[in-house]
Amino acid sequence: MDHAAHIEETIQGIYHALEHPGAHPAETGLSAIDNWIDALDGLGGSALTGLQGELRNLRGYVQSDDRPAIANSLQHLGQETSRMARDMHDGVGDHLRHLGQVLITAAGNLKMS
Is the whole model's pTM more than 0.85, yes or no? Predict the structure, then answer.
């Protein structure tokens, strides 16, 4: 699966989870987080290492069902994803900007619930 397809799959998963919050067991979310950690592994760069660290934090928050921490982590991931995509002017950049917006929206929705 290419990066754009992986990003789009993640976006659709987040949308579905927001629309049907009770239908998504934690295991599904943990699997998606693990897939992203693996996808970023070995790509290098301090920004990606930081994202991997935040994804690991998010994984722990999901396991412990710490909703405020999940929301804060999603917010941080969304901001960092958007920042990284700012100078990318291709299809992957567009998908990353969209993912950043979706993560920030998901954080806001979680904070309000």
Answer: no
